[in-house]
Design goal:
Elements (H helix, E strand, L loop, with lengths): L3 E14 L5 E15 L5 H10 L9 E3 L9 E3 L3 H11 L5 E3 L1
Parallel strand pairs: 1-5
Antiparallel strand pairs: 1-2, 3-4
Length: 99
Amino acid sequence: MDAVLDIMFHHGRNFEKGENGRLDYYPDSKHCLCEIDVDKLDVFYLRNDFKKLGYDKVNEVWWLVPGGSLEVGLRHLNSDDELKEMCFFVEKNDSIIDV
């Protein structure tokens, strides 16, 4: 069986400093794109899913290194090479990645 992963899309608005001084994403609407074959995943695949959520134009996409904080764990998802790196890390997070 091919490797699969779940992508948890966090979408809504902005990164903001919370009352605790830590970076948060607000509002944090979530959508799961489940059981994706990693061999079929590319940047265009992700863009099409954003369109299904009503986002015709997405300026930037970021992913969170598992176990990292928003302050230091965010990585810019702007190429297939970065997507491959993201898929490598997903094994350390029960096949779930936050985008």
